[in-house]
Amino acid sequence: MSLAADKESVTQLLNRISAGDTGARDVLFQSVYSELRYMAAALMRKTRRNHTLLPTDLVHEAAMRILHADSLTSLNNRRTLFAVAAHSMRSILVDYARQRAALKRPTGSGRQRTPMDEVLEHFEASERCSVVALEDALVDLREQSQRHHEIVVLHFFGGMKFTDIAEHLSISLSTVEKSWRFARCWLVDHMHPD
What is the pLDDT along the chain (194 residues), one digit of tens a residue? Predict the structure, then answer.
């Protein structure tokens, strides 16, 4: 299937969902599953290789949030669907990090470690920041520039290449690259003001 045909079929499925066709949700998930898994795998590459959390787990959690949300009916094209998926994957990691931080406070709580603990610990060690601090900085960046925020989320959490981001946002590749450099510097300055 060509990219244009694939874009059209996702748009048609989203239109069917908006029209109330509940069966279209399953068809949509099946048709975009491999790309969602690619996005999750790109995010998981930032983690240890021997952890037990799989990209499939992240995809399924994100899919549950997206496909069963009322907001799915407001999505009108492939670009918005994948932007929502990247945001959802980010949200899953942030929610988990906040829950984990809340449970860490009382020492010796007997809490069981989960695969997501390993993912977050590796992320925080390799990126030298906490997921929650990154989320707070991204919220501030979104207030400054929606486009810069979107590029960071799609590239960092969605694993998208700059050329794909340019196509999805209908902007030039050079604009994406400049925006990424600016956003990355802004985030570093914002998270490490020293």
Answer: 444 446 558 999 999 998 988 888 889 989 999 889 888 887 777 654 545 567 888 888 888 888 777 778 888 888 888 888 888 888 887 777 667 666 665 544 454 554 445 544 545 555 556 667 777 888 898 899 999 998 988 887 777 789 988 988 899 999 999 999 898 888 878 876 66
pTM greater than 0.70: no
User: Containing domain of residue 37, as a range?
Assistant: 3-191
- Tell me how long the chain is: 194
Q: Which DSSP string do the residues of 92-131 spell out, in sequence order?
A: HHHHHHHHHHHHHSSTT--PPP-HHHHHHHHHHHHHTS-H
How far apart are alpha carbons 31 and 158 in whole angstroms? 17
DSSP label at residue 156? I
Count of domains forming the chain: 1
Tokens of 127: 């990126």
